[in-house]
Amino acid sequence: MEPKTKLMTVFLIGILAANAATAGRYIESVSHEISGDEIEITVVITNPGPDDLCRIILHVKRGSDGEKIRSKLVGSVDAGDAVIGTISSNWDYRWNVHDLAGGYIIELEDYYLGVIEVSDIMEVSYQGKPVSCACSCNGVLIESPVHEDDYGKCPELCSKQCAGFTVCGRAEVDCGPCCSSYCKGAGLPIEGEDACVASCKDACNFNSAIHGLINVIRYVAIAVAAVVLAICGLKFIISQDPESRRQAKRCFPYLIFAIVLIGIAQALIGLFYEVPEGPPAGKMQTTNIYIEMIGEEVVKCWESSTGGPDRVCTKMDVSSWEIYTVTEDDVKNYLDGIGRDDVKDKMNWKIGEGIDKYLPGRVCIKYDTYWDNEVFVLKQNQDVMCIDFSEETKQIGDAVVACWKSNKDKKVDEVCKKIGVSGWAPEVTVAEVNVGNYLVSLGEGDIKDKMNWKIGEGIDNTLGEEVCIKYDTFWDDEVFVMRESNPDCS
Question: Is beta strand 347-349 parallel, antiparallel or unpaired with respect to 132-137?
């Protein structure tokens, strides 16, 4: 064996050995549950190394050819910790258990390190067969029959069906621009837009031919009626004897026939071809699952908060959304569709735009009572209550709340808790304003006004001692946040 060949062999063996040594290091287990056509895949991820993993992404790939089906951002995983990542096909109608074709692979990717592990093929045993797939056509759910071997073509099949509802061709218009506008505005999956445009052009040309035929029949019938009317009328006027007049009157049945033909021309064609009247009508469906997601959170926020104080109901991460944008009208139409006009009128869309995966930060759903009882939909940086707080801020804030609530009835001075901060990360600083805003976000603004920040600065890991949380009644009932060395912390 040549020296270069030997070196390459040793190198490849080393890579294989390294891969074998690290196999299974991050993916602890993979399991799934099947319900109907839906599948929910659960992956337990461990991080045994000394360093944090940054922005872990799970990829579900088809076991037969490795094609990516779905991805989900799990987030960061601290060293030594374990997290669970779940991917459900009911989040997005564009895939389900049939797309896995009998098995799938989980690929684990780190934002900086790239792919760090790939699982074995997980077999999927499923006996059912799909009978239809669905998509949204102008906000209405339509279904297309499919066979088992073409289920992956759902976007194409549904988009072609949606194209059949186009009214392009009913007037003197260019089919190309008309169909492009129709398909892009129908809310179809991006993968199906080209198929929609192609089918729409065929439908447009056929519509044009049919309406041309209808117009020809109409114009011919009108012309025939006009000629018959002229002949019969003239003959009747110039007739000199009763027999001639009787012959002139016999023309009028032909005139009536022509008029009837005009009236039934479109109906006759309709026996063989259904003339489209435009997109299907109906209430807003939930094919775009994100519309339902926002709408349901608005409803829950309203129902759980009516009559209460300001509070943040939820903060939603939209960075993992796929192709959709959710607008104010989308959500209002959804609320209309589920019979919640009352909540629709109380929703205040302060986000200023549609929501999509490129929105910076998270979407905040907040109950607000400043002007009126409303549910705000806004960006998290638009309201102090919606800001994300560090775990250290929450630690101090939770201790203040607990101290106040446990001692307000006793009215006695008491040290509630001492918090060690030496282990905090170097970049972490907790200031009075941070804790105050956190208390407001909890709906505990009254406790914020009772907090006395006696520490004199922000808290970080250089403090050199513990932070003391104390209930004090000397001047007023207050909760002190101070150094352990403060004489009041005794």
Answer: unpaired
| Strand 103-110 with 122-123, pairing | antiparallel
What are the beta bridge partners of residue 82?
46
pLDDT value at residue 144: 65
Gyration radius (Cα) of the chain, Å:
35
C-beta pairs of 222-229 under 8 Å, 24+ apart in sequence: 222/258, 222/262, 224/254, 224/258, 225/255, 225/258, 225/259, 225/262, 228/254, 228/255, 228/258, 229/255
The amino acid sitting at 157 is L
| Rounded-to-integer distance, Cα 46 and Cα 53, Å | 10
H-helix segments, 69-192: 154-163, 175-184
Residue 99 has φ and ψ, to the nearest 5°, of -65, -20
| Residue 312 buriedness (CB in 10 A; 0-12 / 13-18 / 19+) | buried
Neighbours of 354 (CB within 10 A): 14
**Sheet harboring 363-368: ordered strands across?**
311-316, 363-368, 374-379, 347-349
State the sign of the Cα–Cα–Cα–Cα dihedral 374, 379, 383, 388. Answer: positive
pLDDT digits 0-9 by tens, 149-208: 555 667 787 788 888 888 787 666 688 888 888 888 777 777 778 888 898 888 888 878
Ranges of H-type helices in 187-288: 193-238, 242-249, 252-270
The pLDDT of residue 436 is above 60: yes
Q: Nearest CA to 28 among 15, 16, 42, 49?
A: 42
Residues 268 and 261 sit within 8 Å (Cβ to Cβ): no
Cα angle value 419/423/428 (rounded, 5°)? 90
- List of residues 6+ apart from 289 with CB closer than 8 A: 90, 91, 92, 93
* Geometric angle at alpha carbon 76, from 74 and 80, rounded to 5°: 115
The Cα 15–Cα 212 span in angstroms is 71
Q: Which tokens sit at 363?
A: 């979407």
CA–CA dist 157, 155 (Å, integer) = 6
What pairing do the DSSP bridges indicate for beta strands 467-472 and 414-419? antiparallel
pLDDT tens digits, one per residue of 332-362:
888 887 888 899 999 999 988 888 888 877 8
Which tokens is 135 given? 């998509």
Q: Six-digit token pair at 35?
A: 């319900």
Amino acid identity at 309:
P
Spatial separation of the C-alpha atoms in residues 46 and 26, rounded to whole Å: 5
Residues 221, 265: contact at Cβ < 8 Å?
A: yes
